[in-house]
Amino acid sequence: MKELQRSRGLTTGRLDARFFRLELRLLGEFAEYDPQDTSITGPFTAAFNNYVRDELKFGQTGSITLSRKTPGRIGIGSHHGGENFGFPGSPNVEGDLIRPCSPIRHLQVEVENGLYDLATPFMATEYTMEHLGLPDKLQKNIRLQYYDAGHMMYLRDEDLVKLKANIAGFIDGAPSRE
What we know:
Layout lengths: L9 E3 L7 E3 L12 H21 L38 H8 L7 E6 L7 H9 L5 H4 L2 E6 L9 H16 L6
Parallel strand pairs: 3-4
Antiparallel strand pairs: 1-2
């Protein structure tokens, strides 16, 4: 995020590399914030508050605290990482995907990829999906979709329509359990 445009004095967005902002601490190793995240936090917070307070009539007498550290959330250490990908300390869900794919030979998997996503880069996803070590008959059950967007492709209207169509097609094309 910081190195990509350091010479221009900018920080690049991690969730969407098309976003960038002025970097005030040029000598630091890591970016202080994600320009894409700071661009959407205000509108998302306002929409959430409107929905929760006005439509659900919840929390009108107090404050609501949102946190990424929610109870029961799966942490990096609880994943069944794979042996073929990743480096120590990196989140790796390869093993989490291999485990259900092997015994359930009809399991279909669709992966949605934003081309400008630096948090979960599409090339890393492609590599992971191609190196799961699954037999060809199971490997063909994995489908990759691409969007001209970042991590949250639904923020771009054209990609929201495409995402909806892709997911509907995925669900409609699911094999019958009979």
